[in-house]
């Protein structure tokens, strides 16, 4: 059984009449880089805030490091081991870069002074600069520094590259991968940028309307998911029922396109049994998996 | 380091309040400078002067309530509701998310922040009382240093009630609304004190005014105790709000 660093079960959360989470089951393996995907309003930030104890769930359970997040006293132990980047990247406007680092450092016994120096230099963050004078991109970099230098076992990053220019995104992604590889840090990050997730994540979860609709190892998903394109013969009709594993069927004229989440070979065999049909199998990208699921959900 | 954060948050507000207090003190000096009776004055003059002095002392206590309200309104809430103006109700919480992600309990966050503001408020009260003592010839003539110290203690106890009320308001109101709310509460307390004939034992406005040690020459212990109990209740309520609050 895989060791889980984050585990939620049937987590629900509503805001007045809006259901943000509807029985969310999330399992993040220890040591993974977990990309948390979803449309705007799908429930990503609500999930992250619930894990951080900023929101209280209505029902269900959530544990981080095996500690229930609802236990306010023990949740302090959780936060001591987490590096967190908030979605809006807001920091204290009355502090300078140096002051906020000096303020944050004592809360974390495993603070990485070496990384602090490295990222101050790499991100070109002037210690005497006041925070309101920083651009959004610079604030994002400062938040990343404050999260990474905590010496945390788990980094929870809500849209970490939001506001960064392409060169900075490249730097940040490379650093995140390096950190995950070198220090056994688990990384749980939400993003709209599928290409970023595809590049660095080894596990993904796709949330839609407050429910997890796809989750697993990215390699497994890519290995199992396949698109089948079937060109039908002149008078042939596709079967009304396909074998298990077909997620969606789209037909345009004589061309039928199937997305299979698993069991692709059996589905292909079924397709081959249609008289006069030609069948081709293609690997699918994360983007295709994402779009197919959120459209059909 | 939460103390450091609290200090950085409030230092300019504290300087502003100290500046305003110094300004009020300078006005106090210019008003009261000629109110000390001549030792050779007749009985009628002394009686008239005594009456005038009572009015002036009343005005001093009233004037000293202004910085007290100002300090409560300005120093109590900053940093407890660290969100941009008028944004909390729209779901924008500013740097509160960062603060709440730190490994510190909400009890600790609130206590440290409220204590920083309270200590600063007490500094302003001590500055106010010391300044009044040295700048107002009347005070040093008709009261003693002990009475002035007792008056400062009364201001601290009664001011703590208003301060903790402001802390409570800060837990669910934006900064601007909290400031207005604190001033409104102070106005309401003044109105109730003058129109509802409260027992002196629970009349905190009278305790810092007519019933204060520099006018009544007694320490309003019961009103002070009542104010401290209310302050504790407001702080406890604020803690409950903060602990249950979602961001």
Structure overview:
Chain A contains ten helices and 14 strands. Chain A has about 300 residues and is α/β, with parallel strands linked by helices. In chain A, helix 4 (about 115-120) packs antiparallel against helix 5 (about 135-150). The longest helix of chain A has 18 residues, at about 165-185. With about 250 residues, chain B is an all-alpha fold. Chain B has one domain (about 1-245). In chain B, helix 2 packs antiparallel against helix 4 (about 105-135), helix 4 (about 105-135) packs antiparallel against helix 6 and helix 4 (about 105-135) packs antiparallel against helix 9. Chain B starts with a helix and ends with a helix.
Gap between N and C termini of chain B: 22 Å
SSE sequence of chain B, one letter per element:
HHHHHHHHH
Overall tally of structural domains of chain B: 1
Total strands of chain A: the figure is: 14
Biggest interchain interface, per-side counts: A-B, 32 and 23 residues
Given helix and strand content, the structural type of chain B is: mainly alpha
Helix content bin of chain A: 25-40%
Order of helices and strands of chain A: EEEHEEHEHHHEHEHEEHEEEHEH
Uncertain runs of chain B: 82-86
Number of contiguous helices of chain A: 10
Rounded radius of gyration of chain B (Å): 20 Å
Q: Look at the structure and give the mean pLDDT of chain B.
A: 80
Mean pLDDT of chain A: 89
Helix/strand-derived category of chain A reads alpha/beta
- Biggest sheet overview of chain B: none
